[in-house]
Amino acid sequence: MQEQNPTPENAAELEQSAAAETTTENTTGKHAAPDVQPSLEQSLREAELKASEHHDAWLRAKAETENVRRRAQEDIAKASKFAAEKFATAMLPVKDSLEAALGTENQTLEKLREGVELTLKQLASAFDGANLTEEDPAGQKFDPNKHQAISALESDAEPNTVINVLQKGYLLNGRVIRPAMVMVSKAKTA
């Protein structure tokens, strides 16, 4: 069975006759004025338009989210790739100083020592700029999170105290990148 779709002229005539009936009923007092509701086809078209708009908005939001994710991944990759750039730039003068020291002939021991001390200051400055700090725990309580005990020696010091530092440790922004190698004290046996 086929439904007959009203043409625009027929639809207008139907709406006018429905409005006329409503007016007559209102004047006779039989019925209260009903709300004029749009036809089912019109409601369907409006719903389809809204659905299409929402679908387009969703596609745009999805594309924008993908773009943001891709840009964030690129930023992370760049940050990782060039993370050491500032530190490397600070290390270049240190390398230049060492090369200059090796390139100079007939140096006196005094001049060589001065050059090494200046180079060490440049290195310490580079470490400070990168938040790389030295861990020299001599006399401190042994901390297994920051120190690596090589041996324990009998000592008058309180047990588990660092009595000798074999190699300094280093922290980068408070995180251990190399633990200090230490010797710790143990109680004397009687």
Structural overview:
The chain is α+β, with helices and mostly antiparallel strands and 190 residues long. The chain has a domain at 132-190: Head domain of nucleotide exchange factor GrpE (Nucleotide Exchange Factor Grpe, Chain A, domain 2, Roll), CATH 2.30.22.10. It is built from 4 helices and 6 strands. It has helices at 8-28, 40-81, 85-103, 109-129; strands spanning 132-135, 147-154, 162-167, 169-172, 175-178, 180-186. The chain has a 3-stranded antiparallel beta sheet. A 3-stranded mixed beta sheet has the order 2-6-3, with no helix packed on it. Strand 4 (169-172) and strand 5 form a beta hairpin. Helix 3 (85-103) packs antiparallel against helix 4 (109-129). The longest helix has 42 residues, at 40-81. The chain is elongated. It starts with 7 loop residues before the first helix and ends with a strand. Mean pLDDT is 84; it is low at 22-29.
